[in-house]
Design brief:
This protein is of the alpha+beta class. 35% of the residues lie in helices and 34% in strands. It has a single domain (2-106), classed as Gcn5-related N-acetyltransferase (GNAT) (Aminopeptidase, 3-Layer(aba) Sandwich). It contains 5 helices and 7 strands.
Length: 150
């Protein structure tokens, strides 16, 4: 299992992974309208466009994309793990990688917008709640921050 930069050719696989995650996992905490909006947002074309604005990564194993994540400045975004691989340490590996990358870039903290679904995971990693956002398209998200070790 390795983490590498996202390539344009990954877009269809990453799109399938994110959409699967939305339908199988996030749909337990969000209304159909929010899931539908996000499902439509994560097309291969949009993922390629997103990757041009931030550092986007994938975790791959034997040619299969297991997870995706991205970093823009000190903000962690688009963290998704294939549902069949959740609970196996992949999310932890991804977050260690991104937090390490942010620290190497001299950021003292990282922030993220957590879904209801991932909130407990981030709390266990030392993130603290800053505020709750309610958005018609994205639903309820929790803005969180974690101080990085020097």
């Amino acid at each position: 299992m390795r983490i590498r930069k996202f390539h344009r050719g990954d877009a269809p696989k990453v799109s399938r992974l994110v959409r699967k995650d939305l339908l199988e996992v996030n749909s337990k905490n969000y209304p159909k309208k929010v899931i539908g909006f996000m499902y439509d947002l994560f097309t291969p074309r949009n993922l390629i466009e997103i990757s041009s604005r931030r550092d986007m990564y994938v975790i791959v194993h034997e040619g299969e994309v297991l997870a995706t994540e991205s970093l823009s400045g000190n903000e962690i975004m688009t963290v998704f793990v294939d549902p069949k691989f959740q609970g196996k340490g992949i999310g932890t590996k991804m977050m260690d990688f991104l937090e390490g990358m942010a620290a190497k870039r001299s950021h003292r903290s990282v922030k993220l917008s957590s879904s209801i679904t991932a909130h407990v995971f981030y709390k266990k990693r030392g993130y603290r709640d800053l505020r709750v956002n309610m958005d018609e398209d994205f639903g309820k998200t929790i803005i969180m921050k974690k101080e990085l070790r020097a």
